[in-house]
Design a protein that fits this description.
alpha/beta; TIM Barrel; eight-stranded parallel β-sheet; 41% helix; globular; binds pyridoxal-5'-phosphate; pyridoxal phosphate; Ala_racemase_N; Pyridoxal phosphate homeostasis protein; PyrdxlP_homeostasis; PLP-binding_barrel
Length: 221
Amino acid sequence: MNSIAQNLKYIENTLADGVTLVAVSKTKPIPDLMEAYNAGQRVFGENKIQEMTQKWEEMPKDILWHMIGHVQTNKVKYMAPYVDTIHAVDSLKLLKEINKQALKHHRKINCLLQIKIAEEESKFGLSENDAIDLLKSEEVQKLRNVKIKGLMGMATFTNDSNQIKNEFDRIQVLFKKLKITFTEFETLSIGMSGDYKIAMDCGSTMVRIGSSIFGVRNYSI
Ligand SMILES: *Cc1c(COP(=O)(O)O)cnc(C)c1O
């Protein structure tokens, strides 16, 4: 088995220019994260606020923490002091709460709108039209403590690479269209361990990779 540092290096060597790697460390213990940190990794992704906050408290302060999971409005306050980017923003209500909590800490929090591109019913996210309406709404334009930097999507969990490509293509088209109007748009967060190469072919600027770096997750611990 390869070490975390070796896995990280391998992945880095396969990334296209300008693609940011979010090392998805959910469920993994701090020593594993520190191995990646010591190999130079500074961007980590977590999907539970409590777990992320505990890691933030104990780890070096130059880490950029990305919340990649679904966020409940009432929990935003716990990560507002430090979170760099929230990937799965899918409502005006959540965006307003992020803005309110960021303001309390005199911060600006980066946000990505999650677009529903997968067939599966279980995946969260906005429809393309709802995302456009949200971005254009006056209420959103007034928010000063959030910066909506782009889109995030998750493809269907399938071996059918054509289907994955079609889903990533759809979000890429939307991203390019929105970029014309929303000049702050720079991030298209698509691609995980199993599909990040397809995602890069579809214009990904940020990949979220967990198991290929840290090994498979054991949820029973
Ligand atoms: C867990 C997770 C990932 C990473 O998945 P891997 O298959 O382990 O690379 C990426 N994005 C989100 C939203 C996740 O929840």
